[in-house]
Amino acid sequence: MRQGVVRLARRLSAERPAEGLSLNKSSVLAHLRRNGPMSAGALAAADHQQPQSLTRVFAELERDGLISRTRDEHDGRQRVLELTEAGRDALAEDMARRDAWLDVALADLTETERQVLLLAARLLRRLADSPAELPAPAPRPAPRSSP
């Protein structure tokens, strides 16, 4: 399963326009499109990243007019990120080529296979959003000293 997901992700990535959005930028825009305005910390957590790793991405998206940052009306220390109309358009354009490839690839499948993939996609989203964590490793026994 992992290999199939990785191969499909790579194939879709290969369909990204060279001048298009970076993966991080399109991910930020997609989160805002799906979930609406949110803080940088909430967005980073939803994307399983540290807010510091997205600071430059947020700044570039704001500079390019794809997101806006405003003060949170409930907590003035927080900034709220919001997708702009230009951001919606940029995301749609960025996704269009990959969507076109996917449409052609899906056309080769039967209706049953397409329905199975739709179900699998929902399950993969649930897995990606799962709070499951690996259990902590068991402590190693202390080395025995020789007499």
From TrEMBL:
Keywords: DNA-binding, Transcription, Transcription regulation. The keyword Transferase does not apply. GO terms for molecular function: DNA binding; DNA-binding transcription factor activity. It comes from the Bacteria. Pfam families: MarR. Residues 1-129 form the HTH marR-type domain. PANTHER family: CONSERVED PROTEIN, HTH-TYPE TRANSCRIPTIONAL REGULATOR RV0880. This is MarR family transcriptional regulator. It comes from Streptomyces griseoruber.
